[in-house]
Amino acid sequence: MRIVRYIHEKKDEWDRFVEDSKNGTFLFLRDYMDYHSDRFTDHSLMYYNDKDKLVALLPANEKEGALYSHQGLTYGGFVLSAKSKTGEVGELFDCTIDHLRTQGFREWHYKQIPAVYHKLPAEEDEYWLWRHGAVMTDCNVMSAIDLKGIGSPIESSRRNNRNRLQKQGYGIVHHAPLEDFWPILTGNLQMRFGAKPVHTFDEMALLMSRFPNAIECVTATDAAGNVLAGTILYITDSVVKTQYTSASMEGKKAKVLDLMLLGLIEEYQQKGEHRWFEFGTSMAEDGIGLNESLISQKEGFGARTVACRIYRFTV
Predict the structure, then answer these.
(1) Structural element, H or E, at residue 12
(2) C-beta of residue 310 within 8 angstroms of C-beta of residue 150
(3) What is the pTM of this model?
(4) Which residue, among 161, 164, 154, has the nearest Cα to 265 in the 3D structure?
(5) How far apart are alpha carbons 274 and 113 in whole angstroms?
(6) What sign for the dihedral angle of Cα 21, 26, 28, 29?
């Protein structure tokens, strides 16, 4: 097994592998990964077998003597082909550890790709993490709905709110202008947490222009067309994810998120093109406890927990 550090000249080869992989998403394409390249020192790796065929990728960055599954991405880990086998993944771990030792790294922080994003079973890494004695340092709680399952236990109050608002002329707008939603999001984050979105407006607008079929702004409006809430959808092969969701004070009072989110869930259930509707994580500010109100809201729509784990190796 041969390891090559990613360089821009390999962009097309990298992207083709992601597109054909069994667990990669558009977040691993270089046009997404590199939008914030000024914030991270990229140390992504490409793995070639004895026949010089590319067999795996590792999106990663380096920081203070450690290699991280890319800190600018929600999830990471090895991106594998449909032909990847368990023994081969073991070789990837062995080769990576040797590479890190040679390069003088002290630690490797490995962030898994949650199972809902797998197009085929791709949990070979779970076995080898255990075999190598990797220590789990974080377990983030994601919430997802199985769109093709037996039916989500949605709270009746949410259906009642949706039905009431529909009768009053409230509606959902797909492919809405980002500027209609962004002030609601930034205002809420500043007021409640003194925080800003992970993305700036310009960054999100850039990503939407680069991935028009994968990133979409959706808003909820009243009968007069006033925007009261919105969300940013990240749409992959298997998952529709709400990246950001927020409502104005008036929208919260009217409970317009029940209209928007339930409408989107039912819409994607009817389309039948995706397996999961995912709401992201619900962690408290310390990264350990749960944000109880946030996870309660998600579970009210029928979502249940998917673990997003991060491990640490000492190399």
Answers:
(1) helix 11-20
(2) no
(3) 0.94
(4) 154
(5) 17
(6) positive
d(CA 91, CA 86): 9
| C-alpha span between 42 and 60 (Å, rounded) | 6
Question: Distance (Å, rounded) from C-alpha 129 to C-alpha 310?
Answer: 10
pLDDT for res 231: 98
pLDDT tens digits for range 63-107: 999 999 999 999 999 999 999 999 999 999 999 999 999 999 999
Return d(Cα 17, Cα 13) in angstroms, integer. Answer: 6
Task: State both tokens at 130.
Answer: 């255990």
Distance CA 73, CA 54 (A): 22
Residue 82 tokens read as 């449909």
Positive or negative: CA dihedral 10, 11, 12, 17: positive
Coil, strand or helix at 115: helix
Enter the tokens of residue 22: 């069994």
Residue type at position 285:
E
pLDDT above 90: percentage of residues in the chain: 94
d(CA 195, CA 35): 21
pLDDT tens-digit profile of 109-156? 999 999 999 999 999 999 999 999 999 999 999 999 999 987 778 999
